[in-house]
Amino acid sequence: xxxxxxxxxxxxxxxxxxxxxxxxxxxxxxxVHLGQLxxxxxxxxxxxxxxxxxxxxxxxxxxxxNTHSDGLQSLAAKxxxxxxxxxxxxxxxxxxxxxxxxxxxxTSFITGIAPLVGDRLSEPLTLFLFSFLFFxxxxxxxxxxxxxxxxxxxxxxxxxLLFLSVLILSALxxxxxxxxxxxxxxxxxxxxxxxxxxxxxxxxxAIAGLAFGIIVIDVIRQMGVKEDTVVAKDVMRSxxxxxxxxxxxxxxxxxxxxxxxxxxxxxxxxGIALAQISGHYLGTAGSLFLAVTITFACLxxxxxxxxxxxxxxxxxxxxxxxxxxxxxxxxVFSFCISNMGLSSIINYSIPVLMLIYPPAITLILLxxxxxxxxxxxxxxxxxxxxxxAASVFDFMKTLPADVQTSLHLDQAVDAARxxxxxxxxxxxxxxxxxxxxxxxxxxxxxKKERQITPx
Length: 455
Description:
Elements: H1 8-22, H2 26-38, H3 42-66, H4 72-76, H5 81-98, H6 100-117, H7 123-142, H8 147-173, H9 192-199, H10 205-222, H11 228-259, H12 270-316, H13 323-338, H14 342-369, H15 377-398, H16 401-407, H17 410-419, H18 430-452
């Protein structure tokens, strides 16, 4: 079997592919907002954010390659066949029409269109008109996949990164305030590391890594790398390059957000903060340029997500709906959700991400370490079951306060806080997952002993 490895140039190309898939709307708005909240505590906050927004996503891609899986459904099938359908559907809906696709439209609107329109039209009406046009284009190109997404990726992404570089340099060379004088706000006053660790979930990149890992692996195989072990190593090496670039951008945008505290009040969301900072340093022309580039960048991402979700559901349910029908359903649903507004989408996405991330993280870690227990299904099953049981309480805890009250969830959350260590640090799932691991390994060991014990 061929032992061909990627050349450095090929690895750069693969890294660019990874970066293009990962870097979307959330990768800009969340670090800027985090910087405003963290203030002088930005160093521990940055470290926490990078762990979940960079480290785990790259490991997720590597997990697909390491297990020689042909996608998320194949990887999740190590827990169980029915579970693979459930988890794949939930994950793709989360990074698709439930949250990520609508967020692309609302981020484009908040950062680009709203500052230009101002008060001339009501914001709900303007958002409706913009999102209608946005998703009309998404559906048009999703039903006609071709060179448009590649063209936008090659042109818009570099232009946007160039613009972002100009904005960051302008902000860093003329800071509004010294970081040391920016008071931390909210949860970032104490425990900034753990707060940022949870906020890194909001980028959705870890679950996106599981969903898109097979795409990167296919690219590497098309370059001539055939051996699965070599593919996994090349994925990891390319991922490290991608991670370094993303980490650099996160560090700079978090710093930019922290230094803006004397210029603006802490924004409701990162989209507003990015628009304010852009308008301050680059004026109307900068706001117009931001509007064009971020809209096209988010348009590209949305087209790719609609196509990816539609293709996935066609593969999972081949005798049900067609690709065209799935694309129409996902686009119309995303349009409806987008009109809730960016802040509402973010607020309601957090509980779902807190629910999904623990089983996603444990699945990634089990896949990477699976050779130690021969990828025994009992280990996957026990760890996943205990992770889900704990993450349900994280889901309850992060629901909006009025929802918690109406569903009478206070007592359940308080009980979980008393029983689960690190619950208030959003790590209440760690001990249950460890217990599940111990149980799974004991079952695995007992099964092996029965196999070797003579009758």
